[in-house]
From TrEMBL:
Keyword Coiled coil on entry: yes
Coiled-coil residues: 5-74
Annotated keywords: Coiled coil
Gene designation per UniProt: MYH16
Top-level taxonomic group: Eukaryota
Protein name: Masticatory myosin heavy chain 16
Length: 76
């Protein structure tokens, strides 16, 4: 009976160590998830900004092409 009690205590100790290790891993993963979500939000904001700039550049290019076409037509 004493041996069974010692085995149970050893298993309990091992389970507690495993639990603490798993809780530590969960904490690390949560922290990493927060960092990744922050980076994703930042990348998304940068993407929207660049898409806006691209849209502006396309609009400017269309304006220049229109001006060029008018100028060429006037030369003829």
């Amino acid at each position: 009976e004493q041996e069974n009690l010692m085995d149970a205590e050893d298993r309990l100790t091992q389970m507690m160590k495993t639990k603490m290790d798993l809780e530590s891993q969960i904490s690390d993963m949560r922290e990493r998830l927060e960092e990744e979500e922050g980076m994703a939000a930042s990348l998304s904001a940068t993407k929207r900004k660049l898409e806006g700039e691209l849209s502006d550049l396309k609009r400017d290019l269309e304006g220049l092409e229109t001006t060029l076409a008018k100028t060429e037509k006037e030369k003829q």
